[in-house]
Amino acid sequence: xxxxxxxxxxxxxxxxxxxxxxxxxxxxxxxxxxxxxxxxxxxxxxxxxxxxxxxxxxxxxxxxxxxxxxxxxxxxxxxxxxxxxxxxxxxxxxxxxxxxxxxxxxxxxxxxxxxxxxxxxxxxxxxxxxxxxxxxxxxxxxxxxxxxxxxxxxxxxxxxxxxxxxxxxxxxxxxxxxxxxxxxxxxxxxxxxxxxxxxxxxxxxxxxxxxxxxxxxxxxxxxxxxxxxxxxxxxxxxxxxxxxxxxxxxxxxxxxxxxxxxxxxxxxxxxxxxxxxxxxxxxxxxxxxxxxxxxxxxxxxxxxxxxxxxxxxxxxxxxxxxxxxxxxxxxxxxxxxxxxxxxxxxxxxxxxxxxxxxxxxxxxxxxxxxxxxxxxxxxxxxxxxxxxxxxxxxxxxxxxxxxxxxxxxxxxxxxxxxxxxxxxxxxxxxxxxxxxxxxxxxxxxxxxxxxxxxxxxxxxxxxx
Length: 464
Prior knowledge:
CATH superfamily of the largest domain: Creatinase/methionine aminopeptidase superfamily
Largest sheet: 5 strands, mixed
Oligomer: single chain
Helix content: 25-40%
Number of domains: 2
CATH class of the largest domain: Alpha Beta
Radius of gyration: 24 Å
Shape: globular
């Protein structure tokens, strides 16, 4: 945990958004994998962590603004628990670490809320786990089907406002998470050898995440079929002449995340065609850090990167026509059907449990309905302290190419005969994490994961 003063400061800042009411934060419970006592690895709710810091199951935090109270609800362990788990800190001890002195057993949460509900509104965030949805339904006497609809938009907006800007302590933790990401991705480069199974490499990366931190920040994407954007199948053998796309990250011991992607040549050397496409994506990646700065929308950065992609593809004879018009029409999305990035912090897609519309957009910047741009998860105006991913890509998706060609989509921008010859290419994505500074942006991470063609080839050559 951080110092108790930080959690107290965060809660005080949250209170400033409300004149009345009760703010309810449910921690997560253990989730059974295949029977009740065999559970998935525990992951605490990120907003509960942010305001209360307690990283154990079955706790709830309450901020009662009307009665000027902050309370932790939870249960002390009994002898059966001690036999299996050993001695545990008391609820009072855990609450003290969060700067809270008032505690009650968890079973008293319902009666407390029932009393205050007569006079005050209970604000809660939208639950993403069924157990918490049912718990809110029970303790607030709301039909389970209405729990999501009755979540507090006021609380969502207040939490987004606070969690979007990362403090000094958080940036330090994100740097630690980035170091784990460095270890993971350089390991992929070391162990990418002909004849090795993708599963073996993915397992090594997952082990590094667990060895240096809590766990992966998301399920590892590692595949020679990089044209499938979220490819979690690791059942192929590494063969010569292909590209291995690895999108992987870690949560450090304070649950802060990293998210990096590298695409490497399976034989250790890029072919000429691979170099040409790779250079286009790398130029887009590097251009984003030049463009990102406070008071610029990330939507505008995304669109500028798409124009850079089009210019590069025109140079290879894959696209044609006016670049501005091509991007406005969405023709580039044949090659990059996703957005440039998303917010990152305690969640790898930070706060998206609230709904992307509340996190990546605002009243000024609204989502697009255009294919490709509609998948941009972060579009709003950047501010100092924001952390966003920078992840351009270029993919040759045979099914999408066939569909668009049959429908004669964007024939004034797309050179289908040439594109046809790339259908066995795969995909390239390059990703790092950006911290928005006072006058620009910088990549998070003191250790630089090899990314230029020369860096990647030289690093892989050292481990042949």
